[in-house]
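name: query_chain
kind: protein
chains: 1
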Amino acid sequence: MKRMVCIAVCAVFAAAITARAGWITLLSDSFDGSTISQWSYQGATNTSGQSLFRCFNIHELIQAEWDQSNFFSGLSDPYLILPSSLSRSLGRTLTDRDTFRISATLNITPGSVPDTTEFYQIANFGLYNLAETGPDRTMSDNWSGNSSLLKDACDFVEFNYFINNDSGGFNPGVSATIGAHTAGPDGDYTTGSSADDTNFWHDTDMGANHWLPEGSNLYVELTYYGGETNGLRRRALCAIHRDAEHSEILTVNGVDMFYWTQPLPEEKHFSVKEAAFVNYAASNWGGENGFGQGTYDDLRVEQYFAPGEFFAEEMNSDGFRISFASESGTVYQVESSSDLHSGWSPAAAVTSVAETVTFTNSMPDTVRFYRVTK
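structure:
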């Protein structure tokens, strides 16, 4: 694999290595209160005037309320849809060409989730581009006849927990969802399908009167495989584990809690810039409103890089630094060239002792290119 990226105007990094993956942490937050200023809330408030997502400094948690009191009636028009989100910037943009994952610990408050036949989803979190997405996650306004439709949500990769019970053949279940970018009000979501390859399709229907466990930690991980070249390519997978090491899948009523989407079509694209916890308002057709309470903890966002693949750069008056993923114990050769035609000269030999390597050098007087081999 080759990748080249310009470092200012005088150095280029190239990678030409295929090996095992390396996961680089983009964001990690234990919610001890030290990063609360980096989070932004928008949306509804509860009856006490509080945000639906709040940092609990004492317990080092995010307290969440999936309060759907701001639901909109499926019989009314025009609709008023007010989703809520607590978000933090990733510091970079990820696209459908990248491979990345987000994980968090979810704990649902016992007795807080109602028995509802309405198609409600709670405990949603993932990666988003909030500047691009609209409020209508369920595309409820698309058939209303309204002359100016609400913009559908788009540009996200998300974990979903649906709590509807015996609702038109649907029971509680979890899923991953990819929202492709759309310029208009026509939603474009990629989920799983029973028509998919049997190696991927897995229905998480828990059966009537069965829900996710309450009052215990659920370790949720959502992965998008944009950089793969095999059958995983452009799919998303969500899984709920029983342990923090993510070694044992949670089973509810005999059903394993993991879910693959179909591949995002090649002509569809998205970009995400924030990690966020989200609460959606949904339509109500006469059943019990969906709501619930719980907490989130230990959020982590990571991006996949093949060893030898560039992931960061820095330049100052003393020179520049380029960082790449690596395999521990491997010797990497950093080479330079002045024009990409006259050959390559050794710049450094670096032995990796971890999953990353940083190469530093003084600023060259002329344009210079760099590559890494092993």
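note: The domain at 310-373 is CATH 2.60.40 (Immunoglobulin-like).
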